[in-house]
């Protein structure tokens, strides 16, 4: 912006790095840093430099002249001149801009260490350590060292970008599908045919939609640009009539402020009306689970069925959705809508990820992931989360069993559905979800502690 201000003056056909340094009121020792920044802005297409490039000598850059600001540069300046988010520092805004620039080029969220290395190569001293993003705007995942933005965050940084415009298209299509189809799905094929989206645009749109808590509820893919997502019919109605991403953001903010669906909230608080509809399903689930135990017990299987175990659904085939409504709340929230639409592999995947997230929250471990996370958090040798008294043999067995169950969920369930195109029968899906729910309840009841190591092997 300092360079643009200098170029706007009538007597300034070009601007040198020294002029920019003085305008910024930086010390002379940072002259090399200014040169590196100007060269990067020229390389990125924001500024226009001389055809011959910067003045070089002795294998180093001696001077950089700027002849003008390009159209993309003008757009970027306009974005930067917008009033800053009241809750964001300049460091956070810049971090988010770096994330979005990488995402816009590749369709992937960047690894923070790679961003830091790129800055170092340019002589930029901006330190990304400790710069975090509000959860409604983005995330910084220490487990896999990536950082990303929600659609709200992308809109904050680049409201006029192609990525934000494509999200608005997807929102309108979701609403149209919601109004006209019983089991609506948003597909990359339809977007490619209707709107001419290329592979990179579809990849970026899919990535952004994964951060949206309102419109879609998971689905399947056979590649980065070939995918389908279930339209979340319990939420999509809020956005009928919305045209732009600004409309989406305003509606989402209103819903959050009014106690509507919020990322991270349980279904009980975010969807009270839906919970009322589920009460009957919960009663049915109790009957189904109780009936199954009754019929497996040799002493009771031939006896008359008690009244409390009588229910129309209990006499029919297993209703997986009814049972899913009775799972641990975090697991239920993650998988219920997928179960309703008979997407059992996706339901198991989302449930296992919810278990991972719960384990991270309870243990405070954000570095390891899945199997390693379970091993570190629940190890009977030196547990971070204690399920029971591990000073006794029985306690250590229960601790070790919980760890192995969690690792089994990640290895035998999550990995299978995440990396393979599989079909899961309803009864098997119910067994998987029930196992995940059981582990979640054990983790939820555990407490954080520091315990001296024992001789017990993990």
Set out the fold topology.
Elements: H1 2-7, E1 15-16, H2 17-24, H3 31-43, E2 47-48, E3 55-57, E4 60-63, E5 65-66, E6 68-69, H4 71-81, H5 90-106, H6 112-121, E7 138-141, E8 146-149, H7 151-157, H8 162-180, E9 185-187, H9 188-195, H10 199-209, E10 216-223, E11 226-231, H11 245-257, H12 267-270, H13 272-296, H14 320-324, H15 329-340, H16 344-363, H17 370-378, E12 385-386, H18 393-419, H19 426-445, E13 447-448
Antiparallel strand pairs: 1-5, 2-6, 3-4, 7-8, 9-11, 10-11, 12-13
The separation of the N and C termini measures 57 Å
Taken from the alpha-carbon principal axes, the silhouette is globular
Number of helices: 19
**Low-pLDDT runs:** 258-282, 311-317, 450-458
- Average pLDDT taken over every residue: 75
Can you list the strand order of the major beta sheet? 9-11-10
Beta-strand fraction estimate: 5-15%
Number of domains: 4
Q: What's the helical proportion of residues? A: 40-55%
Oligomerization state of this entry?
single chain
Structural class call reads mainly alpha
- What is the count of β-strands? 13
Computed Rg: 27 Å
State the major sheet.
3 strands, antiparallel
């Amino acid at each position: 912006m300092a360079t643009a201000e200098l170029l706007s003056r009538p007597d300034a056909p070009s601007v040198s790095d020294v002029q920019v340094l003085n305008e910024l009121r930086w010390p002379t020792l940072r002259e090399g840093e200014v040169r590196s920044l100007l060269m990067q802005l020229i390389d990125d297409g924001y500024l226009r430099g001389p055809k011959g490039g910067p003045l070089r000598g002795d294998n180093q850059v001696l001077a950089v002249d700027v002849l003008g600001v390009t159209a993309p540069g003008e757009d970027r300046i306009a974005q930067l001149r917008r009033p800053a988010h009241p809750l964001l520092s300049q460091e956070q805004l810049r971090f988010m801009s770096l994330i979005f620039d990488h995402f816009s080029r590749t369709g992937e969220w960047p690894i923070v260490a790679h961003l830091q290395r790129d800055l170092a190569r340019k002589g930029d001293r901006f330190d990304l350590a400790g710069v975090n993003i509000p959860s409604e705007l983005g995330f910084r995942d220490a487990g896999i060292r990536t950082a990303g933005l929600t659609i709200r965050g992308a809109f904050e940084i680049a409201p006029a970008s192609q990525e934000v415009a494509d999200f608005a298209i997807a929102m309108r299509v979701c609403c149209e599908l919601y109004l006209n189809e019983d089991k609506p799905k948003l597909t990359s094929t339809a977007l490619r045919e209707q709107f001419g989206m290329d592979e990179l645009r579809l990849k970026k749109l899919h990535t952004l939609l994964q951060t949206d808590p309102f419109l879609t509820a998971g689905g399947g893919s056979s590649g980065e640009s070939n995918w389908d997502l279930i339209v979340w019919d319990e939420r999509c109605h809020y956005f009928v009539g919305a045209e732009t991403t600004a409309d989406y953001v305003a509606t989402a903010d209103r819903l959050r402020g009014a106690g509507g669906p919020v990322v991270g909230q349980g279904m009980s608080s975010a969807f009270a009306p839906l919970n009322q509809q589920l009460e009957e399903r919960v009663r049915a689930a109790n009957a189904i689970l109780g009936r199954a135990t009754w019929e497996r017990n040799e002493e009771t299987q031939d006896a008359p069925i008690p009244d409390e175990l009588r229910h129309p659904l209990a006499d029919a085939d297993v209703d997986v959705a009814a049972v899913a409504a009775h799972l641990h709340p975090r697991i239920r929230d993650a998988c219920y809508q997928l179960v309703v639409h008979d997407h059992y592999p996706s339901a198991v995947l989302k449930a296992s990820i919810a278990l991972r997230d719960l384990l991270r929250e309870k243990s405070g471990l954000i570095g390891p992931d899945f199997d390693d996370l379970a091993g570190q958090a629940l190890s009977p040798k030196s547990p971070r989360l204690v399920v029971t008294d591990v000073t006794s043999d029985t306690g250590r067995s229960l601790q070790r069993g919980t760890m192995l169950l969690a690792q089994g969920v990640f290895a035998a369930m999550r990995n299978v559905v995440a990396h393979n195109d599989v079909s899961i029968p309803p009864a098997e899906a119910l067994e998987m979800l029930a196992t995940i729910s059981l582990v979640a309840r054990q983790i939820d009841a555990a407490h954080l502690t520091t315990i001296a190591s024992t001789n017990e092997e993990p």
